[in-house]
Amino acid sequence: MEILRYSDSDFESRLSGLLGRTAFDAEVEAHVAGILSRVQNEGDAALTALSGEYDRFAVAPDRFQVTVEEIERATGAISSRTRKAIRTSCRQVRDFAAQRIPKPWSYSPRNGVILGERFAPFSRIGAYVPGGTAPLVSTVLHTVTLAAVAGVEEIVVITPPGPEGDVHPAILYAAQYAGATEIYRLGGVYGIGALAYGTESISRVEKIVGPGNAYVTAAKRQVYGYVSLDLVAGPSEIMIIADDTADPRFVAADMLSQAEHGSGREQAVLVTTSRELVETVQNELAAQSAKLRRAECVSQVLESGVFVIEVATLEEAADLASRYAPEHLEIMTRRAGQLAKRVTAAGAIFLGPWTPEPVGDFVAGPSHVLPTGGAARYFSGLTVEQFFRRMSVVNYQKSALARELPHVERFAATEGLDAHGRSGSIRFERT
After folding, report:
1. pLDDT for 133
2. Residues of the chain with pLDDT under 70
């Protein structure tokens, strides 16, 4: 754990390393480029070879797609409690998404002119669901459900195969329940390549959504242009702003909730005005982490990814949060809602002591697919609107074109685009 104090003379220089984090790595980028090239050039054959190389099970093309029978068996392979949790989460994610469906609109700003927008859902999207160190069943619900609410006709899920080529039954049940139309046992970079380029067995998609590790993040960035993307989502992170009212047990537990994801590159940051809280949280982190099943993953983060920043005021804490732009920001202070208004960059904000970040991961409603690595300064989390194409609609009557034609012609002349100007003026020439 590294402790930084606002009052230290070297605070800004030490802070710069924390703020300068990024979701990209040059070595990872180069490695990913080679894998994507193989998929693009070799198609199905590359997918089979790469699944064996990276997921320890070489998936033959006739087994890429999960069968209807496998999906049906998945229902009986998971407990009724798990099924209920999946249905509850899906319902609550669906309800939130339904509030945000864009509606067509128009208005007349000038005589003879009607302007507006209309929206149409994407036809085919792909959702990446991590399944390596942990089967992220919730990611299915926080991606597929939104696409289904938007009205996307073809919703493709890809997830890494297990050692025997299997897919976790809870992932299959959630995907089917949420509205997936195709499920493939393909993961990592090669799966992203299959969605972006298409192969003999897999039709390409128009958009790829979903989080992943550093390699998946790099792959998504490199296929941008072949497909649309949601955002950059790398290793998980959490920042907690806390004052002397915060319960150190809650703070430590919430920090550990993000440290256990498994890459070792996660970050957990506490920003506080209470020096006493620092010591008690430190003790709680040690005590609670020792009881976790994924203690080995957590220990890596505790060693190099946990930071405590002492500040003089909560206003300083909020300003620092905006600079850090965390994926998840918890505020456990007096008047947490008021303090949150000062924050200008965060993937999601969780207010008060009874809103632990995992409710957002699983059941709250907004998608848990959020920007990381400081990308919340220029990306926002996944929403249902991102599954729509937006189209401007422009309608001019003859009188309106006549009125504004001189300006059209002046722009055309200024930019040296004669045909632009003539496309307007020819409409008023006598034949």
Report:
1. 64
2. 22-23, 132-133, 262-264
Residue 296: predicted pLDDT: 75
Residues 256 and 311 in one domain: yes
Same domain, 211 and 269: no
Looking at the annotation, which residues are catalytic? 327-328
Task: Tell me how far apart the alpha carbons of residues 87 and 12 are, in angstroms, rounded to a whole number.
Answer: 47
Indicate if 163 and 179 belong to the same structural domain: yes
Residue type, 116: G
CB within 8 A of 156, min separation 6: which ones?
124, 125, 126, 127, 180, 181, 182, 183, 184, 195, 205
Q: Are residues 203 and 286 in the same domain?
A: no
What pLDDT was estimated at residue 234?
A: 73
Give pLDDT tens digits for 63-91. Answer: 999 999 999 999 999 999 999 999 999 99
Does residue 112 sit in the same domain as residue 198? yes
> What is the reported pTM?
0.92
Of 123, 140, 121, 147, the C-alpha closest to 66 is 140
**23 is a domain residue:** no
Beta bridge partners, 3, equal 308
Q: How many domains does the chain have?
A: 3
User: What's the pLDDT score for residue 15?
Assistant: 83
Q: What's the whole-number average pLDDT of the chain?
A: 94
Instruction: Domain of residue 78: give its range.
Output: 43-229
Together in a domain, 14 and 148: no
29 in any annotated domain: no
